[in-house]
Write a structure and sequence with these properties.
Layout lengths: L19 H40 L7 H10 L4 H10 L13 H7 L27 H16 L11
Helix pairs in contact: 1-2, 1-3, 2-3
Length: 164
């Protein structure tokens, strides 16, 4: 009776034994090949889910008057669209910012919640006729401020000559 060396009944020779290093390399190569083919599919799926989640948050009825909050929830959190909608429904509507056409100071003063404060206009310290000094000219106000400075510090004020 004849026996085969492979032990599988086909008469084929058994493969040469592999070292642990060869086995580890074969496994690593197989994993790398699997990842290389699966990674683009996984990334595309992730990007699609992220885009759909953002669209669901930004486009929901609860986000209509709360776009800044909706964008923050969509872009800076990992919560589900339903969780974001719950927060949006509990949040107050956004108040539009008042637009100004002056300096940052003018805009801050004119957009104040206090109706009696403003950067310009009658009766509020602006240039609308009441400079806070009974209608003084700019030169009179400057002279008064210089005198107060000298009185408070004892330092002399060196006048600046105007060009021209």
């Amino acid at each position: 009776m004849q026996t085969n060396q492979g032990g599988n009944g086909t008469g084929a020779a058994a493969p040469a034994p592999m070292s642990e290093t060869q086995i580890a390399k074969m496994i690593a190569d197989g994993i790398a090949a699997g990842l290389a083919s699966a990674l683009p599919i996984a990334l595309a799926s992730h990007d699609k889910a992220k885009t759909e989640r953002r669209a669901a948050i930004m486009g929901c009825d609860e986000a209509k008057e709360k776009q800044k909050l909706a964008a923050s929830l969509a872009d800076n959190t990992t919560m589900t669209a339903d969780e974001a909608k719950a927060i949006l429904s509990a949040a107050a509507k956004e108040v539009p910012e008042k637009k100004g056409s002056g300096t940052g100071f003018h805009n801050a003063m004119n957009n104040s919640q206090n109706p009696n404060v403003g950067a310009d206009g009658e009766g509020n310290g602006g240039n609308g006729g009441d400079n806070g000094g009974g209608g003084e000219s700019d030169e009179d106000v400057a002279a008064r401020l210089q005198q107060a400075y000298v009185g408070a510090t004892g330092n002399k004020v060196v006048p600046i000559k105007k060009a021209g």
